[in-house]
Amino acid sequence: MPGTRIRIDAPSVLPSRLVGTLLAVRFDTLEVKGNIKASRGKQSEWTDPIPLSVIDNLERSRGTKGHGLVGMGLGLLAGVATAHVVSSSSGEYRGLAFLTSGVLFAVGGAVLGGMLGAQFRTEQWENVSVGMVETDPVPEPRLIPGSLSGG
């Protein structure tokens, strides 16, 4: 569908993976505007049509996903470890003080970790079979009423 973010591997035509926006799907080509890595790792814009027959891999974006939950988990563990170190170094390794500091550090770590994790986003991709790409219909010739003269 035009407007979809896609990535394409077509080594016989593209020097690297193309990531861009699908502009149109024709009978035998995809029209994509996107970026590829050119020589020396520089980004280069690609706007040429790509024949469907040369595409090795086609994927469509399913959007991005944040990593807030992973960050929360790591922050929670870091908070508990910090509480353990603080409590054992101060000699308050038992009782309510240890429990209180453990909960406070764990919650604080989880909140900070969640906030940091949410800042890191990963794009999710879904494989699409090249044969399943819907092409734009080829306009069929139509007769305009009254254009044929009877004789």
The level of helicity is 25-40%
The first-to-last residue Cα distance is 47 Å
Give the number of DSSP strands: 7
Order of helices and strands: EEEEEEHHE
Percentage beta strand: 25-35%
Q: What sort of overall outline do the alpha carbons produce when their principal axes are compared?
A: rod-shaped
Oligomer: single chain
Radius of gyration from CA coordinates: 28 Å
Count of DSSP H/I helices: 2
Largest sheet: 7 strands, antiparallel
Secondary structure layout plus pairing:
Layout: E1 5-9, E2 18-25, E3 29-37, E4 43-46, E5 49-51, E6 57-66, H1 68-90, H2 95-119, E7 121-127
Antiparallel strand pairs: 1-2, 1-6, 2-3, 3-4, 3-5, 6-7
Helix pairs in contact: 1-2
How would you sum up this structure, described in words?
It is a single chain. With 151 residues, this protein is of the alpha+beta class. 32% of the residues lie in helices and 30% in strands. The chain has two helices and seven strands. Strands 1, 2, 3, 4, 5, 6 and 7 form a seven-stranded antiparallel sheet that branches. The longest helix has 25 residues, at 95-119.
